[in-house]
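check these C-alpha coordinates.
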Amino acid sequence: MATSLDQVEQSVNLAHQAGDAVGGIESASAEALRATDEIALALKEQSAAAREIARNVESIAQGTEASSALATQTAHLARSLNDLAAELNIQVGRFRVV
Protein backbone atom coordinates (compact mmCIF):
# COMPACT_ATOMS: atom_id res chain seq x y z
CA MET A 1 0.00 0.00 0.00
CA ALA A 2 2.82 2.40 0.86
CA THR A 3 4.46 1.62 -2.46
CA SER A 4 1.26 2.48 -4.31
CA LEU A 5 0.97 5.71 -2.36
CA ASP A 6 4.58 6.59 -3.23
CA GLN A 7 3.93 5.86 -6.89
CA VAL A 8 0.82 8.05 -6.88
CA GLU A 9 2.77 10.83 -5.22
CA GLN A 10 5.57 10.50 -7.79
CA SER A 11 2.99 10.54 -10.59
CA VAL A 12 1.44 13.71 -9.16
CA ASN A 13 4.90 15.34 -8.91
CA LEU A 14 5.71 14.32 -12.47
CA ALA A 15 2.36 15.70 -13.64
CA HIS A 16 3.14 19.02 -11.93
CA GLN A 17 6.60 19.09 -13.53
CA ALA A 18 5.07 18.33 -16.93
CA GLY A 19 2.53 21.12 -16.41
CA ASP A 20 5.32 23.53 -15.48
CA ALA A 21 7.29 22.47 -18.57
CA VAL A 22 4.24 22.97 -20.81
CA GLY A 23 3.71 26.40 -19.23
CA GLY A 24 7.34 27.29 -19.96
CA ILE A 25 6.96 26.11 -23.54
CA GLU A 26 3.80 28.20 -23.95
CA SER A 27 5.56 31.25 -22.55
CA ALA A 28 8.58 30.78 -24.82
CA SER A 29 6.29 30.23 -27.81
CA ALA A 30 4.38 33.44 -27.06
CA GLU A 31 7.67 35.33 -26.76
CA ALA A 32 8.90 33.88 -30.06
CA LEU A 33 5.62 34.88 -31.70
CA ARG A 34 5.96 38.45 -30.40
CA ALA A 35 9.54 38.60 -31.70
CA THR A 36 8.40 37.26 -35.08
CA ASP A 37 5.66 39.90 -35.24
CA GLU A 38 8.18 42.64 -34.42
CA ILE A 39 10.55 41.37 -37.11
CA ALA A 40 7.72 41.24 -39.66
CA LEU A 41 6.74 44.83 -38.83
CA ALA A 42 10.36 45.98 -39.08
CA LEU A 43 10.69 44.26 -42.47
CA LYS A 44 7.54 46.00 -43.72
CA GLU A 45 8.89 49.37 -42.58
CA GLN A 46 12.27 48.65 -44.16
CA SER A 47 10.58 47.63 -47.41
CA ALA A 48 8.53 50.85 -47.45
CA ALA A 49 11.68 52.89 -46.81
CA ALA A 50 13.52 51.06 -49.62
CA ARG A 51 10.64 51.80 -52.03
CA GLU A 52 10.76 55.49 -51.03
CA ILE A 53 14.52 55.60 -51.58
CA ALA A 54 14.08 53.96 -55.00
CA ARG A 55 11.47 56.59 -55.94
CA ASN A 56 13.80 59.37 -54.82
CA VAL A 57 16.74 57.93 -56.76
CA GLU A 58 14.53 57.65 -59.86
CA SER A 59 13.44 61.27 -59.42
CA ILE A 60 17.07 62.38 -59.09
CA ALA A 61 18.01 60.39 -62.19
CA GLN A 62 15.21 62.03 -64.17
CA GLY A 63 16.29 65.47 -62.95
CA THR A 64 19.89 64.74 -63.91
CA GLU A 65 18.79 63.56 -67.35
CA ALA A 66 16.74 66.73 -67.86
CA SER A 67 19.68 68.89 -66.70
CA SER A 68 22.00 67.09 -69.08
CA ALA A 69 19.61 67.65 -71.99
CA LEU A 70 19.33 71.35 -71.11
CA ALA A 71 23.11 71.66 -70.85
CA THR A 72 23.49 70.08 -74.28
CA GLN A 73 20.88 72.42 -75.73
CA THR A 74 22.55 75.43 -74.08
CA ALA A 75 25.94 74.43 -75.51
CA HIS A 76 24.40 74.09 -78.98
CA LEU A 77 22.75 77.51 -78.71
CA ALA A 78 26.03 79.05 -77.48
CA ARG A 79 27.85 77.65 -80.52
CA SER A 80 25.13 79.04 -82.81
CA LEU A 81 25.37 82.44 -81.11
CA ASN A 82 29.15 82.36 -81.48
CA ASP A 83 28.77 81.56 -85.19
CA LEU A 84 26.30 84.44 -85.59
CA ALA A 85 28.67 86.80 -83.77
CA ALA A 86 31.51 85.78 -86.09
CA GLU A 87 29.29 86.36 -89.14
CA LEU A 88 28.25 89.76 -87.75
CA ASN A 89 31.92 90.69 -87.30
CA ILE A 90 32.55 89.81 -90.93
CA GLN A 91 29.57 91.87 -92.05
CA VAL A 92 30.55 94.85 -89.88
CA GLY A 93 34.15 94.57 -91.13
CA ARG A 94 32.97 95.35 -94.67
CA PHE A 95 31.95 98.84 -93.64
CA ARG A 96 34.66 101.47 -93.69
CA VAL A 97 34.52 104.64 -91.71
CA VAL A 98 35.69 107.56 -93.73
Q: What stands out?
A: The longest helix spans residues 2-93. DSSP finds one helix and no strands in the chain. The radius of gyration is 42 Å.
